[in-house]
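Try it yourself: sequence plus glutamic acid, in.
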Amino acid sequence: MSVRVRIAPSPTGNLHIGTARTAVFNWLFARHQGGKFILRVEDTDLERSRPEYTQNILDGLTWLGLTWDEGPVFQSQRLDLYKQAIQTLLNQGLAYRCYTTSAELDELRANQRANHQAPRYDNRHRDLTPEQEAAFVAEGRTPVIRFKIADEREVAWQDMVRGKVSWKASDLGGDMVIARAAEDGIGQPLYNLAVVVDDIDMAITHVIRGEDHIGNTPKQILLYEALGVKVPEFAHTPLILNKAGQKLSKRDGVTSISDFQQMGYTAEALTNYMTLLGWSPPDSTQEIFNLEGAAQLFGFERVNKAGAKFDWDKLNWINGQYLHKMSPEELLARLIPYWQAGGYQFDPTSDRLWLEQLVALIGASLNRLEEAVAMSRTFFASEIIEYNPEAAAQLQQPGMKAVIQAIVTAWEKQPELTPDGAQEIIKLVMKEQNLKKGVVMRSLRSALMGEVHGPDLIQSWLLLHQKGLAVPRLQQALSKEF
Ligand code: GLU
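Structure, out:
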């Protein structure tokens, strides 16, 4: 049997990290087994589905490298298939038309609530006579279609993550609606029915999806049985939790893959991190691997049952690992769009050498690409700079203007600024002003960059000088009243 798995996102929002992680597990399993990974877009909820969300999902999966072998298949284009299956169930007496009105259902629920019973449909129209049906139709009622659920059944499966799971059919809420009401017979098919019909049609062998779907699985198993086909294997993957241990949701801020992308996480680091959200490799000290590497090791025996806490520090660390081992050219190529979006003026071609030096200067401190915007602002800024309070306080101290003046004077004697020459200037000023190196460096940094912390000062000085920014900034510090 060749393995066929699928990811089945609903385009009712951007690609969510939970869906993407489920896609990672599906992809890894398919690759490990030499099987196929299929993409199905579950766009039957016409009110909430949007083409821009579909696009965001396809772009996100592509960006992450989760290439699919078949699809995308769109549920909205397959309504006939679902209706045929519903008709088959009706013909076999496994489903029926239910004429209960929503007012009647509300009343039923209210009674159940009053009696402290769980809400469920009481199957009241399961065995209507043709005369009763005709009377409801004559009243102008439009029926939904319900699938019969035998209350006495127990539905069990061997979950690849959770082991044996079993449900009493009596806990499934009574006969289940599989199609909405429609004048002309069968209305819009509903979720559980469409999923099962698709999974059968697409010959899915393993349904790997989030734990939030576990309550649907017994209903779906009953549908498989009713449709007379083999039930696939199921794996319900642990939820991704926030710090407080609740399901990660939009309220937690960033949850969609395009947001992570924008913040400067690389696709490689993000898939690496998602792989570890609920799975651990046999060598649990191994933390860095690409999709192909993880696919060789992946199996559900090492997927946790417990929810996986989302850990920003770990994601940042992993992302940093990827950024730090990139070549300067590659890192530069990835940073250029962020600097451009930050509104910085530069020419990627003629400024290339300078940009590469800048990358070499800040690259090792980056954990996210977007951080480069703030980190390199001073290098792209105009001659005039703002001083942050610490830098202003530094330059305000008695004798610090003299330090800057001494630097300017010593520098004037040098034909060209080199790293060694810059060191010489600092040494000379230390001696001349009888000051510690730290004080001279801190003042110089404050004057050049308007900040007291930052990347290597000598390199920064050189880079600013290459842009013609160093001399004017020293002059500005000298002429400014702090
Ligand atoms: N469309 C469902 C979702 O986005 C997935 C259904 C499934 O995997 O069976 O949550």
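One thing you can check immediately is this: The domain at 326-371 is CATH 1.10.8.70 (Helicase, Ruva Protein; domain 3).
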